[in-house]
Design brief:
Elements (H helix, E strand, L loop, with lengths): L1 H19 L9 H25 L4 H4 L7 H33 L3 H37 L3 H28 L1 H8 L3 H34 L3 H25 L3 H26 L8
C-alpha cells in the first residue's frame, strides 16, 4: 500500500510538472505523461526488488537455492497461461472499442476515456476485496474447509454489490462535477450527459460482484473457466457491439451498452459457477 501511494504520488507530481511545464520542468504534453508513468513504475519496481533482496522480512525466501523445477512450475504456467489469455481477451476488446470511438471523433474518444477511468476507479478499489477473497479462498480450500470458502464468497458478493452501489450513487450525484473536473469542453460534457455516466453508474453494483467473484475463482484456481467465459464475452459479445456502434451509428452510448452486455455476461457466468460449486475441488 505504501509503495502504491509513493508511486502514485510521483506519477501525479511529474504529470503536473511535465505535461504543463510546471515546477521548473519542460512542457512536454502527452510525452510528459509517458515519462511520468515510466518513472513512477520504475521507482515502484526498484523499491519492490530492493525490499525482496535486502529486507529482513524476506530473508527466509532468499535463503532458498535458485533452482528451476519444471514440476513446480507446471501449475504456474497453466494458471498463468489461462489468465494471460483471459486478460488479453478483455484488454484486446477494450482496445478495439477505443479504436471504434477514436473513429467517431476526438470528443467521443475523450468522453469514452473519462467514462472508462471512472469504471477503472471502481474496479481498482474493489480489487482490494477481490485480492483478499483470492487469498482466503485458497487458504480455506487448502485446509479442506469448503463450506467456509462458500460462506466467505457469499459475504464477498454482498460487499462487492454494496461497494459498487456506493460508487454508482457517487457518480450520479456528482455527474456535473466529474465532467467539469475532466474537461471544459461543452461537446464532451454533452456526450457524457446523454446517458453514458448513467450507464456507468448503473453497472457498478454488477461490476462489484463480478470483480470479487473473479478474484475468488482465481484463488480457487478455476482459471480455465474464467478464460473461456472471458473469450466468449469479449470476442463474441463486446467486439461485435463495438463494431456495430461505429458502423450503425449507435455512437458512444452503443459502446457503453456493449460494456454493460459484457459485464452482464460475466455476472451471469460467475454467479452460475459460484453457486453450482463446480469450482472445487480443483484438480491438476
Amino acid at each position: 500500500m505504501i509503495i502504491a501511494f509513493v508511486v502514485s504520488g510521483i506519477h501525479l507530481l511529474l504529470d503536473y510538472g511535465l505535461i504543463y511545464g510546471n515546477l521548473g520542468f519542460p512542457r512536454l504534453g502527452i510525452k510528459g505523461a509517458g515519462v511520468a508513468a515510466w518513472f513512477g513504475q520504475f521507482v515502484g519496481a526498484a523499491t519492490c526488488l530492493g525490499i525482496f533482496f535486502f529486507s529482513r522480512s524476506t530473508a527466509a525466501y532468499r535463503s532458498l537455492k535458485w533452482r528451476i523445477s519444471l514440476t513446480r512450475l507446471r501449475p504456474l504456467f497453466r494458471i498463468g497461461g489461462d489468465l494471460a489469455i483471459r486478460t488479453g481477451a478483455l484488454r484486446g476488446s477494450l482496445v478495439f472499442a477505443t479504436s471504434c470511438t477514436a473513429r467517431m471523433g476526438a470528443s467521443v474518444l475523450s468522453a469514452h476515456e473519462i467514462a472508462f477511468q471512472l469504471m477503472l476507479l471502481c474496479s481498482d478499489v474493489i480489487d482490494g476485496l477481490a485480492v483478499a477473497g483470492q487469498a482466503l479462498v485458497a487458504k480455506y480450500l487448502g485446509a479442506a474447509q469448503k463450506e467456509t470458502a462458500i460462506a466467505m464468497g457469499k459475504t464477498l458478493i454482498i460487499c462487492g454489490a454494496v461497494a459498487g452501489l456506493v460508487f454508482g450513487i457517487a457518480f450520479l450525484g456528482a455527474q456535473d462535477a466529474i465532467a467539469s473536473f475532466f474537461t471544459n469542453s461543452t461537446e464532451v460534457k454533452l456526450l457524457l450527459g446523454t446517458g453514458v455516466i448513467l450507464l456507468v453508474a448503473v453497472f457498478q453494483p454488477l461490476n462489484g460482484i463480478v470483480f470479487v467473484l473473479d478474484g475468488l475463482l482465481i484463488g480457487a484456481r478455476d482459471t480455465r473457466f474464467l478464460m473461456w467465459a472471458m473469450l466468449i464475452g469479449a470476442v463474441g459479445i463486446f467486439v461485435p457491439i463495438s463494431w456495430m456502434s461505429l458502423h450503425w451509428g449507435w455512437g458512444l452510448t452503443g459502446i457503453w451498452a456493449g460494456v454493460g452486455a459484457l459485464m452482464s455476461w460475466r455476472l451471469l457466468t460467475l454467479l452460475y459457477r459460484f453457486f453450482s460449486r463446480k469450482w472445487f475441488p480443483v484438480q491438476e
